[in-house]
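User: What would this chain look like folded?
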Amino acid sequence: MRRGTGERKARRREDRGEGGLWAQLRRPPGGRDARIMLLAQMLDRAGTGVWAASAVLFFTFVIGLDAGRLGLLLGAASIAGIAGSPLAGHLAGRFPVRSLLIGCHLLRLGTLCTLLLATRFEVLLPVVAVTCLGDRAAKTLEMLFATRVAGERRGTYRALSRSSANAGYALGAGLAAIGLAVGTRGAYQVLILADALSFLVAAALVWRTREPGGHGLVAAQGPDRTARPAGGAGTAGAGAGGAGTGAVRPGAAPSPWRDRGYLRFVALDIPLSLDDSILEVGLPLWLVNHTTAPHALIPAFLVINTVLVVVLQLRVSARVARPRQAAGAVAVYGLAMLACCTLLATATGGGAWTASAALLTAAMLVTFAELMRSVSSWELAVSLAPREARAPYLGVAGMAQSVQKSAGPLLLTGVVMAAGPAGWLALGAAVTGLSLVQRRFSLRRLDALGRAAGPAVTPEPTRT
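Assistant: Here's the prediction, encoded as structure tokens.
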């Protein structure tokens, strides 16, 4: 009895993020398979960090692409990435997640090796597009794997995943810096091979895991395992915003493309992911073109982001572990973005020191917003979807981040920064307003899903 009580107390400490990052990485939700998958993700992200830091320079100085063709290449890759998430979700409803993820790693291994030989633009275009498609598909499959192996502790798993991923990105960027300092064609080829090697090792690690529960379609809930929420999803959609899923055949799995309520959640999630573009595009360009802050400050933005995510993600996730808490975190995200945008708007009015302080504080605020978004968006994407169709639903939810990565930089450079400080204030106000709409909608849909489930269905432990 004492041993059981001690184990429960230890579990509660871990859920609150008090066990320490290293201790929880050694004993993550999901056990051995989760630990292997986290290692595979870290190595994958390390390779991605290498490629992200060197891709533009490789295409410019080694391949010889001009700015126009480079923009077309990266734009096509972004569009292909949008298709990766729903495609992965669709396939995960029919094939094992583990096998699909191994396939994504091997696909990217092949396309990157092709880059070592390809020099013509018409060859590079499909190769880079398929690489990006595989990258987004792999991220969706990792999310599905986590949803199945971690169960009610998926928030803790998500925190560990983001912490290890950020450590991987930092490692990859550091390795890339060495190759970029050398600057020769051979050095760039070594960087590409390092990225390809990370996919090979990640595939080997995933092969060592076991297929998580819910092979094929995610297991339905209820003692008779009947796909009851198929009709309930439509009711929830109608109850949470006046847009149902439409008619669904009894016993048929619901489709996210006919669930207007869920599509509304995904659509709102796109502007509520702009923190990513602000960190990577908005802050550096605003510093260079509109403030007197030193350019050497730019690397500090990513350093602040990486350190804070690694240190704080676990504790933030422990406090946003349930669906209704996640809905509340969406509103906090909006307020953090409003404060960040306000600081950026005021950064042009002072000297170098004032601008530097404002920009560094804005980097901290946008990182805090990212911490809120990373846990709330994922938890709501899972909780607002019917259990027996989570694979295709989460695939559609993954499109939000892909669309944001394509449209976000264009919005910031072509609209927000073109309007000056007023553009940042307008963006902050808009994101805050949308976050409140998303919060209200999510709470209503959660209530509707709870009513549709009824007493015959055993509710998820995280739904309170």
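Residues 51 and 241 are 42 Å apart (CA to CA). If you want, I can go into more detail on any region.
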